[in-house]
Amino acid sequence: MNNLFLDPRTVRDIDKVVDRVHQSLDYTDGAIRLLEVRDLLKLDLKYYRLDDPGLIDEVIHKLKVGAKQVIARPGLLVEAIRKFDLSALFVPDRKRILIDDSIPDLKKRWYETHEIAHSLIPWHADYTLGDDRTTLSQGCHERIEAEANYGGGRLLFPNGVFTQHRLSSTMSLARVREISKHFGNTITSTLWRCVEQSDELTFATIGEHPRRPRDDKPRIEYFVRSKTFATQFANITDTEVWAWMLEYCGYKPTGPLGTIDLNIQDVNGNSHVFVIESFSNGYNTLTMARWTRQTAISVPVGDRRILCP
Ligand SMILES: [Zn+2]
User: Fold this and answer.
1) Labelling 226: which of 51, 197, 253, 276 has CA 20 to 30 A away?
2) How many Å lie between the centroid of ligand 1 and the Cα of residue 10?
3) How many Å lie between the centroid of ligand 1 and the Cα of residue 124?
4) Distance from C-alpha of 133 to C-alpha of 111, rounded to nearest angstrom
5) What is the pLDDT of residue 307?
6) Other beta carbons within 10 Å of 177
7) CA 114 to ligand 1 centroid distance, Å
8) How far is the CA of 129 from the centre of ligand 1 (A)?
9) Burial 219-238, CB ≥16 within 10 A → b, else e
10) What are the structural domains of the chain?
11) pLDDT one-digit tens code per residue, 267-303
12) pLDDT value for 91
C-alpha cells in the first residue's frame, strides 16, 4: 500500500487547525501530551473491551444525553464495532473518542491522535464511523482517512520543530530512532513522517523480515515515498524493494539487518545511487533509502538513448 498525497489546499486547511492547537498549548519542543490536547479541545476518551460487556455497557450508557440517545440504537454501535473489527472511533455529538483497550499501549497514542485529527478537521464532522485496523495502521485508500493520518502526524510532529530535527543531520534509521524518542512517538510513525515530509529523494517500507516472512502477512505492508521520489521514480514499486532486501538483509531476527549502495534508474532512464538500510524490531522490518548521487545521465541520440557517466 502506497502513501497518498493530499492536495495543497487540504494540506493548508489541516495545517491551520493543527497549528492553532500547538499555539494554544504554547508548544515549544518535545513530546505532545495528548491529555492536554484533549483538555483543550474538550474531548473525552474512553476505552472499551469487547470481551467485557460491563465496560461496553457503560460506554454506551454514557452516549445517552439525558433522555435522548445520541445513537438511535446503541446495539448498532456494538454490532458495528464487532462487524468491522473497529479499534477506535470518534462520536462527534459527544466529543468522545472510543478506543479498544486490547490494542498495545504503544499504538494507542497513534490511534487516539488519529481520532483527535478527525475531531479537528471541520469537514469530518459528518463522519462518525470508526476505524478498523487497516485505516489506523496509517494507510487507507480513502481520502478522509489519509486526511486524519496527515493531521495526526502534524499534531504529534509539530512542523517547525520537527523540520529542524529532520534537517539537523543526515537521515538514517539511527537518526529516526533518536527523533522518535524526542517526540515520544513510535519509530514506525516517525519513519513515515520523516520520509513523507522530506523534499529529498527518499523512501521507506514497513513490512516483513525478508528471511522470516509470515505467510499471512503482506511482504511490504506500506511503501512510503517522498513526493519527489514518487514523481521521479514512479517506475519503482514495493516488489523491487522486496527483491533488493533479499540481496542484503541478514537472518538475525532483530536489530540491523544490513545496508547496501544500490543503483536505481529513474523514469527518464538516469541512474542514481541510493543507500538502503533495514532494521527489524522483532515484529516489523523497517527499511529506509536515501539518495546519495547521480551516476549517469541518459541522453536521447536519434531514436536511442545513450548513458553519459
Ligand atoms: Zn479514521
Assistant:
1) 253
2) 16
3) 9
4) 10
5) 56
6) 16
7) 6
8) 8
9) bbbbbbbbeebbebbeebeb
10) 8-156 (no CATH), 171-308 (3.30.450)
11) 999 999 999 999 999 889 999 999 999 987 766 666 6
12) 72
